Every structure is written in C-alpha cells, then in structure tokens.
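Researcher: Good morning. I'm working through a list of sequences from a screen, and I'd like to move beyond sequence-only analysis. For each chain I'm collecting a predicted structure so we can compare shapes side by side. This is the next one on the list. No need for commentary yet; just the structure.
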Amino acid sequence: MEGKYVLVCAEPHQTWKLGRLPGVRGKPVQVFDDVVFHDRAEAEWEIFKRRWHEHFGESLDDE
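Model: Good morning. Structure tokens for this chain:
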C-alpha cells in the first residue's frame, strides 16, 4: 500500500522510527530518522493520527 505509514523497529523492544511504504515490492521503506519513539504505544498513536489525517483531513488532539 503505497504511502502507508508504518513503524520500523530500530532497536528491538526499545526504539521505533516512522516509515512509509513505497508501494513496490523490493523497494526500501522510506524511514524518517528524525521521528524516533521509545514507547510503542506512543508510536502507534502517532501512526493512527497521521493515517486519520490523510483519510479524513482532520487532526486529532492529544488530549
């Protein structure tokens, strides 16, 4: 699924980075080295918010 946000494990059970799928098998995932998470739940919430914004054009607050 081209452009889909994903988590890329940088250090098992410790660090994750934001990534985007290229949409073509065999091509590397685009990894955003400047977006690093140390909590998996926080990382998954960020992915959800980004996907929500792309699909519905609305931002979710972190309240």
